[in-house]
Design brief:
- The structure is a single chain.
- The chain is mainly α.
- The chain has two domains: 197 residues, no CATH class; 84 residues, no CATH class.
- Helix 11 runs antiparallel to helix 12.
- The protein is flat, with a radius of gyration of 24 Å.
């Protein structure tokens, strides 16, 4: 085959590859746009019952904490009786921009499984048969971790952080009146960020596959990870009690331990595959 013809076929193959990627991206964006439009239309209900809900004392998290406080005779410590702050809009475009941003984030969260599925459909043909076998259920696992993180951020981290910041006061002369852009951005960053943070086991899976991370490395720096997790829990909790700190620290630590188990499993598979290849060569 002439060299020019071979190069032309490679170029066409590459262009076809880009065309396929383009359609996967278009379909994923289409799903996000559909859910974004739905969230935009339902904005009044969403703001009242979803976005502003963690800032009310009747939020389920605060009710559960009060019940636990009554059970362990720590009602004064765990029960949140007031969240003293007001939300204002100090910019002309403040409410409109937050309307759009919140609708887009909710649309992205709702469409996340489909977006991951489209990405997986693009990546899957390039994998070996063994890699396809080992990565079965990847879309489900990634989506479940993401939604678990979102629920953790919404029901645990967001209300605890809002309560802490609303009650934090360095002087009686200062009144907490938060701007709508600040409030919504904080809630969105916490909730969506937790969804991404809970992808840690998936990240460790791929890092182990590439040989960047090993189980020995993760075990060696386990103590450092625990210290960082405890510091994070102490920063975002409204008081110094160990219970509220554990609400933040325990899930993060479990994620780290799950990452170690995943790294061990991937390493064992790689060693088994290498041993099998060695036997086949002999």
């Amino acid at each position: 085959m002439p060299l020019d013809q071979e190069l032309d076929e490679k170029e066409m193959s590459f262009l076809d590859h880009l065309e396929e990627l383009r359609w996967h991206v278009i379909r994923a964006l289409g799903a996000v746009i559909i859910f974004t439009i739905a969230a935009f239309i339902m904005a009044p209900w969403i703001f009242q019952n979803v976005i502003f809900a963690p800032a009310r004392v009747d939020f389920p998290t605060f009710q559960w904490l009060c019940k636990l406080g009554e059970l362990f005779n720590s009602e004064e410590t765990l029960c949140v009786k007031e969240i003293p702050f007001k939300v204002q809009s100090r910019f002309m475009t403040g409410q409109f921009s937050m309307h759009i941003m919140s609708a887009f984030v909710i649309g992205l969260i709702a469409a996340f499984p489909y977006v991951v599925w489209e990405i997986w459909r693009f990546i899957r043909p390039g994998l070996y048969s063994k890699e396809r076998k080992y990565s079965r259920g990847a879309v489900f696992s990634i989506s479940m971790l993401f939604f678990t993180g979102v629920l953790f951020g919404y029901y645990v981290l967001a209300p605890v952080m809002i309560s802490f910041l609303a009650n934090y006061q360095i002087s009686d002369m200062i009144v907490n009146e938060f701007d709508i852009t600040s409030y919504v951005s904080t809630v969105v960053a916490v909730v969506f960020g937790c969804g991404l943070l809970f992808q840690l086991p998936v990240v460790m899976y791929f890092l182990t596959k590439m040989g960047i991370v090993t189980p020995l490395f993760l075990r060696t720096y386990r103590k450092h990870a625990i210290v960082i997790i405890l510091i994070l829990g102490a920063i975002v909790t409204p008081s110094a009690d160990s219970f509220t700190q554990s609400l933040i620290a325990i899930p993060l630590y479990l994620l780290y331990e799950i990452s170690i188990l995943i790294s061990v499993r991937v390493t064992k598979r790689q060693l088994a595959d290498q041993a099998l290849e060695t036997l086949n060569q002999q």
